[in-house]
Task: inverse folding
């Protein structure tokens, strides 16, 4: 009985120490700024949660007219994401048009809902958007609004 009690106390102590050293599962995701965005892309989509076109939180690279990869700063680390899917059709985009694109890495998913605020005009390659970006990592999720543009 004494031996069983000692084992139980040791087991509880190890479990307590292990629980204290693990990072909490519900730790908040922090969306940061991507420094030196020119390093990542030339033609593409640039989005800022701050509403300014001077610093960006989400970047998506365009291969021709299609986005194929993206980057987001989560908890101070720029994470590359691969394109997964899009609901964008072949119709011309007008003001108010919307579509959703999904990007993923091994443990992070970003779901971006794009809403056209200024469509491209004749001879203009840029489309301006308002976006809602939902980032999920494990059981944690962060939603933020951003403004940006896509084009060259």
Result:
């Amino acid at each position: 009985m004494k031996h069983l009690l000692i084992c139980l106390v040791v087991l509880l102590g190890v479990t307590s120490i292990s629980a204290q050293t693990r990072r909490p599962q519900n730790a908040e995701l922090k969306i940061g700024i991507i420094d030196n965005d020119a390093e990542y892309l030339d033609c593409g989509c640039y989005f800022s949660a701050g509403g300014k076109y001077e610093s960006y939180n989400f970047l998506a690279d365009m291969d021709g007219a299609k986005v194929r990869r993206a980057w987001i700063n989560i908890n101070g680390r720029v994470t590359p994401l691969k394109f997964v899917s899009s609901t964008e059709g072949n119709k011309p985009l007008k003001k108010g048009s919307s579509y959703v694109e999904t990007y993923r890495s091994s443990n992070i998913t970003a779901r971006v809902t794009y809403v056209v605020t200024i469509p491209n005009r004749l001879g203009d390659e840029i489309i301006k958007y308002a976006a809602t970006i939902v980032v999920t990592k494990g059981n944690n999720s962060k939603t933020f609004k951003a403004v940006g543009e896509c084009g060259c």
Notes: The beta strands are 31-32, 44-48, 58-63, 66-74, 77-86, 98-104, 108-118, 127-137, 140-151. Confidence is low (pLDDT under 50) at residues 4-21. The chain has one helix and nine strands.
